């Protein structure tokens, strides 16, 4: 089936299925949203936050971009899509938590590591290359470290460093800093490994990603 048709068919299933079942929820949502959590995730089609966190419409305010990055706090130039969403989430919706969710096998991170689009023109990878400059210092460090010890998984190291950098960048937004100081907001680093479906959370004390335990994992046998 062609992908456009699959999309429209999916909409029809939604209208006849979930939309009807959850009519009350959708009617309430029509009056406004009050999600308590913001999630910043990658555009990658395999890491949909609503699927990973099993949420319903209205529960999470989501920004997705290449490699789930938060840019530095900047007021000049540019059109700041991520910053606008962040400002709305923190100052208007007053979310209580922001989750930055990275993932395994990230194409944006791979492009950063390989330098595949470095110096490319806009439309030929230049937009990706410029966007990924947000994590350039970490990439350079990890590249160097991987040269010295080849057993380092540079891809995984940079995927996880990018989450830490995004969280540090979040702290630099004055309205985020204020909400943190007033203990109205918490920041969470998360990493979803597509290969095994395991979610890890960044433990700030140990500065490492710890898997979230699941009580009854259905066995593959
Ligand atoms: Zn990605």
Summarize the SSE layout with pairings.
Blueprint: H1 3-16, H2 18-21, H3 23-30, E1 37-42, H4 49-52, E2 60-65, H5 81-93, E3 97-103, H6 107-114, H7 126-132, H8 136-148, H9 154-171, H10 174-181, E4 186-193, E5 198-203, E6 208-211
Helix pairs in contact: 8-9
Report on the structure:
There is one protein chain. This protein has 221 residues and is α/β, with parallel strands linked by helices. 44% of the residues lie in helices and 17% in strands. It contains ten helices and six strands. It has a six-stranded mixed sheet with strand order 2-1-3-4-5-6. Helix 8 packs antiparallel against helix 9. The site of zinc ion has 7 residues, from helix 6.
* Anisotropy-based shape: globular
Structural class: alpha/beta
Total DSSP helices: 10
Strand element count: 6
What helical percentage do the residues reach? Answer: 40-55%
What's the rounded overall pLDDT mean?
A: 95
Strand order, main sheet: write it out: 2-1-3-4-5-6
Q: Can you summarize the main beta sheet? A: 6 strands, mixed
Strand residues, percent = 15-25%
Low-confidence stretches: none
Q: Measure the end-to-end span.
A: 33 Å
Order of helices and strands: HHHEHEHEHHHHHEEE
Q: Tell me the Rg in angstroms.
A: 19 Å
Chemical compounds bound to the protein: zinc ion
What are the key terms here?
single chain; 221 residues; alpha/beta; binds zinc ion
């Amino acid at each position: 089936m062609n992908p456009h048709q699959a999309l429209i068919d999916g909409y029809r299933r939604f209208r006849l299925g979930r939309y009807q079942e959850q009519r009350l929820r959708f009617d309430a949502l029509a009056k406004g949203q009050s999600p308590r959590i913001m999630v910043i995730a990658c555009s990658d089609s395999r890491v949909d936050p609503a699927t990973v966190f099993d949420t319903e419409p209205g529960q999470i305010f989501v920004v997705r971009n290449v490699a789930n990055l938060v840019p530095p706090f900047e007021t000049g130039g540019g059109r700041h899509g991520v910053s606008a969403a962040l400002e709305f989430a923190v100052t208007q919706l007053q979310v209580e938590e922001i989750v930055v969710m990275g993932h395994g096998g990230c194409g944006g991170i791979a492009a950063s590591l390989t330098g595949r689009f470095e110096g490319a023109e806009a439309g030929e990878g230049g937009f990706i290359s410029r966007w990924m400059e947000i994590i350039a210092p970490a990439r350079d460090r990890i590249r160097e470290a991987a040269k010295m010890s080849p057993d380092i998984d540079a891809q995984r190291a940079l995927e996880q460093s990018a989450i830490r950098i995004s969280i540090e960048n979040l702290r630099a937004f004055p309205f985020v800093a204020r909400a943190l100081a007033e203990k109205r907001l918490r920041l969470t680093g998360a990493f979803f490994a597509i290969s095994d479906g395991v979610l890890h959370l960044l433990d700030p004390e140990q500065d490492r990603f710890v898997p979230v335990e699941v009580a009854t994992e259905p066995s593959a046998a």
